[in-house]
Amino acid sequence: MGSQRPENNTSAVLKIVSKPYGKIELSLNNVLLPEEKLLNTPSKVDGLDLDTETDLRILGCELIQTAGILLKLPQVAMATGQVLFQRFYYSKSFVRHPMETTAMSCVCLASKIEEAPRRIRDVINVFHHIRQVRAQKPISPMVLDQHYINLKTQVIKAERRVLKELGFCVHVKHPHKIIVMYLQVLGFEKHNGLMQLSWNYMNDALRSDVFMKYDPETVACACIYLSARRLNISLPKLPAWFTLFKVTEPDIVSVCRRILRLYNRPKKNADDLERKVEELRKAYQEARLKSRGGAVSGTNTPNSNSPK
Prior knowledge:
Blueprint: H1 5-17, H2 35-39, H3 42-45, H4 50-70, H5 75-88, H6 99-113, H7 120-134, H8 146-165, H9 176-186, H10 192-205, H11 210-213, H12 216-230, H13 249-264, H14 270-300
């Protein structure tokens, strides 16, 4: 009897080892988000309306772009930061994670990804400068006090959080080079106006959700399509030029509409947006404290068997 026990234990161990587990597959083909994730965002679950969330995304991307210019970052780094920012807030809520802190962390992270690193201190100072200009206050350097130390710690933690939520999959395929390649194929590589305007549309598209929903090839074709119409340039129609790049016309039209919608959208006051989010954040924190208090009070409530 005693000699049979090790055999049973060995078979049990073998069964555990051979148990199949799920796997996580990260590739360049699964960075696009499904429609249900685009519609049911964490911010919406926390009570933030769609218009306010869209305005916060636009504001955050504009902050990253402005900060990148002041930090003299290459455009590809600014674009990477904006895409990471957009991706993060489809995983986490604006109510629970401050927009400006996340924007700073995305600038820091993108500068490292694109091999143009900037110090956290410089990033914080630039955002402080932008805030002063926006509020029309006298420009003064940021004081290196406890508030600065706390903010620096928050940015470092936010950068780690962005990495964690994105599963460390931070590669971004930008349409800049794709636009150049497509224009070369179409014979417009020397048309600087068409190329520059296409790049401008692409940079503006970063403020929308097109990079979450469509692949870079589709976005590149949409930017060329918009630019050609704007400059009254005729592109091949029989067959349609975009079929050469395996892109459909409905997708191009959808991307164009999303980009043009940005120009028709009225600019919102940043302070008003922050106040809306702060109200929801306070309500969330109060509800969280109440639930914790109820749980604690429930465990401490004496029952009939407890000593008096």
